[in-house]
Amino acid sequence: MQYKILVQFHIPEIEEEYEAYIPINKTIGEVSNLLLRVIREKYNTFAEGSDIKMYDKYTYKVYRENDLVRNTGIKNGSELIVIS
Description:
globular; alpha+beta; single chain
């Protein structure tokens, strides 16, 4: 798992938390889209066309869609809040 990191996603709208390995060579937008698909399939929430935002649970830093995960400071054990 050299090119993936384990992060925890907190999703207040569905009151759930998930841990997932995310690739460090993908953008935040790509990771968001993957997460959005999983949430839609499981919970039938987050309407089509809606975007989600991710930010750090402790520093409240908002991550931009075009940022590569490896350049954001996200690391193993990071906790991210996901909102629509």
